[in-house]
């Protein structure tokens, strides 16, 4: 049976209580109940504010708990799905992007032999909600495929995800391919995934131009890399 809806409009109700209730439902694996709470609040305040005021604190808490191994993968998965639900509704409500005009395109994917799609999926969702046109190439993408697609579409940023040490090292191939075709600087390389959080030195080792520790921080990274590409000049 669905959890009853608490009255979130009454006196004394704070955003913190709402955030806590959304977290409680995520812990109970109640995806629909958590999404409904956010929807109810967004109906009054809009999805842009719902993302900033509710979703972001919820996901930061989930991220902290995940790093402390205080939640299960299933609970993390539900949190990711709630984020996807909210961001997709935000996108439907504001097709040009919640935060402005459509930007990009950018290319994302998991490097060759890497099938950890959850994190990459969240990065794509957050980028789309921030107004980026995202070409998601999926799992197991070779360096040449990444660069070919960026060239075909005029993308100035390639975002490569890897969860394992052994696969992350394969990202070096994307840098080598960009160098070989004289595209480094014009096409920027964003890298990410849990392995980069535990071994930050890997970013430089694989030739990454930048990284972000969470999907929420990806739009800021992609914007700065896009601007660096424009500063470097040249047609793409
Ligand atoms: C779920 C999971 C799986 C699932 C993946 C399901 C899916 N569809 O994604 C399955 C079961 C398929 C799987 C398989 C394997 N896995 Co696994 N897996 C995990 C686990 C438990 C969680 C990963 C996850 O989804 N995290 C949640 C997401 C949301 O977080 P995230 O990926 O970090 O992404 C966030 C940020 O990093 C960032 N981000 C991510 N990508 C990008 C990209 C850019 C450009 C930017 C800017 C940011 C960014 O934004 C995201 C959202 O905030 C981890 C353990 C762990 N604690 O991390 C092991 C783990 C990654 N797996 C591991 C291993 C070894 C394997 C297998 C080899 C197991 C086996 N023996 O078969 C296979 C390999 C499959 C393959 N070739 O890819 C090891 C890797 C060891 C290492 N460091 O080298 C880990 C660390 C487990 C362990 N402790 O041993 N796995």
TrEMBL record:
InterPro entries linked to this entry: Cbl-bd_cap, Cobalamin-bd, Cobalamin-bd_sf, Met_Synthase/Corrinoid, Meth_synthase_dom
Domain B12-binding: 103-236
Any Pfam family hit: B12-binding
Keywords, ordered alphabetically: Cobalt, Metal-binding
Record PROSITE patterns: B12_BINDING
One of the GO biological process terms: tetrahydrofolate metabolic process
Gene Ontology terms for molecular function: cobalamin binding; metal ion binding; methionine synthase activity
A GO cellular component annotation in the UniProt record: cytosol
Name assigned to this protein: Corrinoid-binding domain protein
Species in which this protein is naturally found: Geobacter metallireducens (strain ATCC 53774 / DSM 7210 / GS-15)
């Amino acid at each position: 049976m669905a959890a009853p809806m608490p009255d979130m409009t009454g006196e004394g109700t704070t955003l913190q209580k709402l955030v806590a209730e959304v977290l409680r439902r995520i812990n109970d694996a109640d995806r629909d109940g958590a999404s409904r709470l956010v929807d109810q609040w967004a109906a009054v305040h809009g999805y842009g504010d719902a993302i900033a005021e509710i979703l972001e604190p919820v996901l930061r808490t989930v991220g902290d708990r995940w790093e402390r191994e205080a939640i299960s993968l299933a609970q993390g998965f539900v949190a990711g799905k709630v984020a996807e639900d909210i961001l997709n509704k935000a996108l439907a409500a504001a097709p040009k992007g919640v935060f402005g005009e459509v930007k990009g395109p950018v290319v994302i994917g998991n490097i060759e032999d890497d099938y950890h799609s959850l994190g990459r999926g969240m990065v794509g969702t957050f980028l789309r909600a921030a107004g980026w046109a995202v070409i998601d190439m999926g799992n197991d993408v070779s360096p040449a495929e990444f660069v070919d697609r960026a060239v075909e579409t005029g993308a100035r940023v390639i975002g490569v995800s890897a969860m394992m040490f052994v696969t992350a090292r394969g990202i070096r191939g994307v840098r080598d391919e960009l160098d070989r075709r004289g595209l480094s600087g014009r096409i920027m390389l964003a890298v990410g995934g849990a392995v980069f959080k535990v071994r930050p030195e890997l970013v430089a080792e694989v030739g990454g131009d930048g990284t972000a520790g969470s999907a929420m921080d990806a739009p800021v990274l992609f914007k700065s890399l896009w601007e660096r590409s424009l500063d470097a000049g040249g047609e793409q």
